[in-house]
Amino acid sequence: MIDLFNVGLRTVMCLLFILFIVKPMLMALVRKDVNQVTIDEMALAASQAAFDAWNHPPIKHFYDNPDLALFMANHPDLVLPDLEEFKAKLLAEEQAKEAARIKREEEEAAIALAAAEEEQRRIEEERIAQETQAEKERMDAIAAAAHAVVMEANKPRAQPTEEDAGESLADMRKRMQAETKKAPVIPPELLSGNSYEDKVMVMRMIADHDKDRVARVLRNMIRGS
Predict the structure, then answer these.
(1) DSSP 3-state assignment of 1?
(2) Is the dihedral of CA 189, 192, 195, 201 positive or negative?
(3) For residue 192, is it within any domain?
(4) For residue 175, is it within any domain?
(5) Domain count of the chain?
(6) Are 215 and 184 in contact, with CB atoms under 8 Å apart?
(7) In-domain check, residue 12
(8) CA 140 to CA 194: how far, in whole Å?
(9) What is the residue-level pLDDT of the chain in tens, covering all 225 positions?
(10) Is residue 4 part of a domain?
């Protein structure tokens, strides 16, 4: 009976040895099938990690410096600044500087534009003033010429005598050619007027002087006949 128990115990021990010791060793020696998808994923992850490490160099920790590590060990209550917060602060300062620069450039552009508009307005005012002055001088010259004509017309002239009625037509023509052209009598109100209509009326009255001269020549011809 004891022999059978010993045989059974040894058999169980052999089975357990084969199951938990020999089998794993044999399975490790067997070549497994290569999973290409898994290999591709691992290669992609490795390349991405290398790319990230190249673009973002590792931040040096304070423990890399022995003196600083010792200082931090002696001051455990010391809190290191947050790098992300520091970066955000720097970014905010840069954005504020950029906004201030843009605002300053806009103000300078507005000032330059206002100065250019003011210069253009001044040039336009000078041009209008020059044109107005030239027009005033021209109208004053016309008024002065008309006044001179009126003063000439108001001079006393010799009255026609009885001898003028008996003179021949040729003598009358010569006398009329030698006689100073009679100027029209222009009212002083028109001479003192500054409007465009007043100046036009003065010029028309001066032009009508030729009609009066023709009428006088015809009247003398009728009397001579």
Answers:
(1) coil
(2) positive
(3) yes
(4) yes
(5) 1
(6) no
(7) no
(8) 9
(9) 667 777 787 888 888 888 888 787 777 776 555 567 777 888 888 888 777 766 665 555 555 667 777 777 777 776 666 667 778 888 899 999 999 999 999 999 999 999 999 999 999 999 999 998 888 888 877 777 766 666 665 555 555 454 444 555 666 666 666 654 555 555 555 555 556 666 666 556 655 655 565 456 556 666 655
(10) no
Residue 213 is part of which domain span?
136-155+166-224
Closest to 61 (Cα-Cα) out of 74, 72, 49: 72
Rg of the Cα atoms in the chain: 62
- Taking the alpha carbons of 66, 68, 69, 70 in that order, is the dihedral positive or negative? positive
pTM of the model: 0.31
Concatenating the DSSP letter of every residue in 172-217 gives: HHHHHHHSPPPPP---HHHHH--SHHHHHHHHHHHHTHHHHHHHHH
152 phi, psi to nearest 5 deg? -70, -35
